[in-house]
Amino acid sequence: MMEHILVASDFSPRSDRALRRAVLVARQFSSKITLLHALDDELPEPLLAVHRDSCEGLLAEMAQTVATSDQITCAYRVIMGDPFRVLVDATRDLEPDLVVMGPHRRNLLKDIFFGTTAERTIRESAAPVLMANGVPAGAYQRVLIAADLSECSLEATRAARTLGFLEGAHITMLHVLDAPEHSMMQRSVMPADDIEDNFLSARAEANQSLQSFVSAVGVQPDQKIVQPVKLSVSDTILEAARKARADLLVIGTHGRTGIEKFFLGSMAEEVLRYAELDVLVIPSLTRGAG
Q1: Residues 186-203: pLDDT tens digits?
Q2: How many CB atoms lie within 10 A of CB 18?
Q3: CA nearest 237: which of 223, 251, 217?
Q4: CA-CA distance, 81 to 244, in Å (whole number)?
Q5: Domain 140-290: homologous superfamily in CATH
Q6: HSE value, Cβ hemisphere, 13 Å, CA-based, for 219
């Protein structure tokens, strides 16, 4: 269960949504909240002092509102530095059980060269990160777990269970069957019946692997789905989430070397950018190894 939730705030409507989601989670699990704001340390000194006082005043008001209206222990911190670095360092220094951030802010040119603060944070965060994309309305009712059947997926599913997000929810376990050899066969001279037999065999094997994964992870889903990839893996995941009427999507990440490939122009980045539901991203326990 969660004892401590860290909420990144830049005083925007996006971070307001993150705070409201954090409050709902804190109520559910009797957690405390820490509000964190990163202050640009490149401002001129006179402006820096004024801006810091202003930010601390705003955070103090927010913390007081949460404490009095929601009966949740709420602290706050203003730390100077780059938002990404401040947030990543805070996940290590404060050791929160969960970091909550607002929806993805799309800035195409900036994203191409640097990535967003959210994406960069998720790459290096020592704690699970919840991106609050949906309108906060209550505890999660329908959770979709996107599993690639790797050790990282095992970790992610177990972590989501440990955090408490799976308790009482309808759980859909999804594995996307990405079989590039199938499309290659379709372009070959192989008979159509042979192509279909090969695909059905791959799907049956994937179903068996998913059942083995479910047994190993110790979570019994209400629904198990092996879905052949359509336009892309990310599109297939998001479409499955819509069909399942999920309000939370759980995905895992790979280690430090893998995470860079995983996020830069890849499936997970697309999921984060286009998801309309909340996304819980679990860092790998093996991150930093190798």
Answers
A1: 445 566 666 567 778 888
A2: 27
A3: 251
A4: 41
A5: HUPs (3.40.50.620)
A6: 31
